[in-house]
Every structure is written in C-alpha cells, then in structure tokens.
Amino acid sequence: MQSHTKGARMSALEQLHKQEYKAGEFIFFQGDVEKHFYIIESGTVKICTMDRHGKEVEIGKMTDGESFGEFALLDNSPRSASAKCMTDVVVVRVSEDGFKELLNDLPTWATCMLKAFVSRLKKVMDEQKDKEV
Fold first, then answer.
1. What are the Cα distances from residue 108, in Å, to 56, 111, 113, 130, 131?
2. Which carries the bigger pLDDT value, residue 101 or residue 12?
3. What string of DSSP letters covers 52-99?
4. What's the whole-model pTM score?
C-alpha cells in the first residue's frame, strides 16, 4: 500500500510545471477554456473580471503560496475571471489530472483548499455588502 501512495504522488508531481511571467502579463483571461490551476511560488497575481459596463473589477490579489484557477476545474466551465501578474511571477501549473490526484492522495491539502475557497467567497460577499450600503 505504501508503494502505491508513493507512485500516486510521483504521478501527481509529474503533472506540475513551473512557469515564469513578467509584470503586466496575463496568465489566463476570463472566458478561456483550460484545465489547469496555479500555485504561486513568488510574486503577486491580481484576479479580476469585467462588469457589465466593461469596467475591471478586482476580485483579489494572490501572493506566495496561494493558489488560483481551481474553479474552472471544479465546475468544468470557462474561466470566470482573468489572472494578471502585478509583479514578476513564478507559478507551478497543475493539470486537471494532477489536481484530482492531489485531492485524492492528500486529504489535508484538500481540506486547506476548501478552507481557502470559503475564505475567498466570504471576502467577496463582504465586499459586495459594503458596496450595497
């Protein structure tokens, strides 16, 4: 059983690819269809979307150790936001298969991922409430 777990982790590790971006570059755009998520090794990434008037709306900024882009993997839909590099950025790109393996093989990681989702959602909801007042 232990060798199966090591094999699964090696397989998941094979699904990781380091990528570098310069400040101002986009990692992906709202509406893109792709099956990856990203973990920031270094730098700052702004997650943003466009409102119905074409104005950019910042959803949040992510930095070292944080992840983004998971929503497209969870609901199999196009990107709901864009990811723009605010600084030079190094990310680890994880494929859909790697994401599934990490969720299955590392339950602690999966729990942390869910907590991060909830935290982000609460933050966006709180910001929306503040705008309505």
1. 35, 5, 9, 33, 35
2. 101
3. TTS-EEEEEEE-TT-EE-HHHHHH----SSEEEESS-EEEEEEEHHHH
4. 0.71
